[in-house]
Write a structure and sequence with these properties.
Layout lengths: L9 H4 L5 H14 L6 E5 L5 H8 L3 E6 L2 H7 L3 H4 L2 E5 L12 E6 L10 H14 E12 L1 H8 L3 E5 L3 E9 L5 E13 L2 E12 L3 H11 L2 E7 L14 E7 L1
Helix pairs in contact: 2-3, 6-8
GO biological process, one term: methylation
Keywords: Methyltransferase, Transferase
Protein name: Class I SAM-dependent DNA methyltransferase
Length: 248
């Protein structure tokens, strides 16, 4: 995941993201859990928007991300600096967990940045070992329909007061694989703008593949949701975002 210079403008560019919808789902999952949930690790937390929202709700939060630039942006919020543990870690690599958690979450298609099945397995195994007994894991991915029919071949753009971007979605070699070619223009001083580019690589797999890997690692009671619905099992090939809930 290559969030470098983009970290400076990420929140401004992503202000349309429905973070509150994720919060509703997470709080619903917690309310339906069979054990109390207090400690949560947010994997791929980015600038920490959801991490801070949950911390404000009284949860003991750890925000983990492999991008030091994104974590530095997350830590600029002074009100959360002392209440959240920020951890720089690549979830596909061996992680020496400082503690174990009641719940792990990974939101906003973070798992789509893991583009190899064996790496997905490593990530799920690391998360499994980060959880307490009966801990729960909640994450989402783009559906195959979203990647193949909505994103690939499209160009998106937006202009704001202090930044603008052009976003091209280029197909990869494999089904469900895409590259995001991102060109940014960030205002520095007066009418001077700095131009920079980043390329992001994502891939999604069929829901059955994620289910199979979860089961292989040892997760149980696996449920699937779609498109921010709170009903389990209500999804099909036209769903745009798939959510998984699994228990250790």
């Amino acid at each position: 995941m290559a969030y470098h210079k983009m970290a400076d403008v990420y929140d401004a560019l992503m202000d349309h993201v429905p973070y509150d919808d994720w919060m509703v789902m997470i709080q619903h999952i917690i309310a339906q859990a069979e054990k109390p949930v207090q400690s949560i690790i947010d994997i791929g937390c980015g600038t920490g928007v959801i991490t801070r929202k949950l911390a404000a709700g009284g949860y003991t939060m750890t925000g983990a991300d492999q991008s030091g630039d994104m974590l530095r942006q997350a830590q600029k919020d002074a009100t959360a600096a002392n209440s959240i543990n920020w951890l720089e870690a690549d979830i596909t690599q061996s992680v020496d967990w400082e503690q174990h958690y009641d719940m792990a979450i990974s939101c906003c298609d973070v798992m789509n940045y893991i583009t190899d099945v064996s790496e997905v397995e490593k990530a799920f195994d690391n998360i499994y070992h980060a959880l307490k007994t009966d801990g729960i894991f909640f994450f989402d991915v783009h559906s195959m329909h979203t990647v193949e029919d909505i994103y690939i071949g499209q160009t998106f753009a937006d202009v704001m007061e202090e930044a603008a971007y052009i976003w091209e979605c280029i197909p990869g070699d494999e089904t469900g694989e895409m590259y995001h070619q991102l060109t940014f223009f960030q205002q520095e001083q007066g009418n001077h703008f700095t131009r920079f580019q980043e390329t992001h690589h994502q891939r999604t797999f069929p829901a059955a593949t994620y289910q199979s890997i979860l089961k292989k690692i040892g997760f149980k009671k696996i449920h699937i949701y779609a498109d921010f619905s709170l009903e389990k099992g209500i999804w099909d090939e036209q769903s745009e975002r798939i959510f998984f809930l699994a228990e250790k």
